[in-house]
Design brief:
Elements lengths: L21 H12 L6 H7 L15 H4 L5 H6 L4
């Protein structure tokens, strides 16, 4: 396996597209990184954002946005 297959970068920016809903953002990362983890709705529930998937990311409060960068890890379960 290539080294890049075992790396996931989690930066200080949330990597969320404001024009998309929270659910659509997470579905994008699930597609890009591979659907090997939780379903999108389950990942949102896991980080306390259940029921907010239909909202666009910019309308979330600062506290609600904080767990967003973690959710791509939950839907793809990359090796750590």
């Amino acid at each position: 396996a290539a080294v890049g297959e075992h790396i996931h970068y989690l930066g200080h920016e949330d990597a969320v597209k404001g024009a998309l809903t929270v659910r659509a953002n997470l579905a994008f990362w699930r597609t890009v990184l591979g659907p090997t983890g939780l379903p999108v709705e389950d990942a949102l529930d896991e980080v306390g954002l259940g029921g907010l998937g239909g909202l666009r990311a910019p309308v979330l409060s600062a506290g609600q946005k904080r767990p967003l960068p973690i959710t791509p890890l939950l839907v793809s379960r990359p090796p750590v």
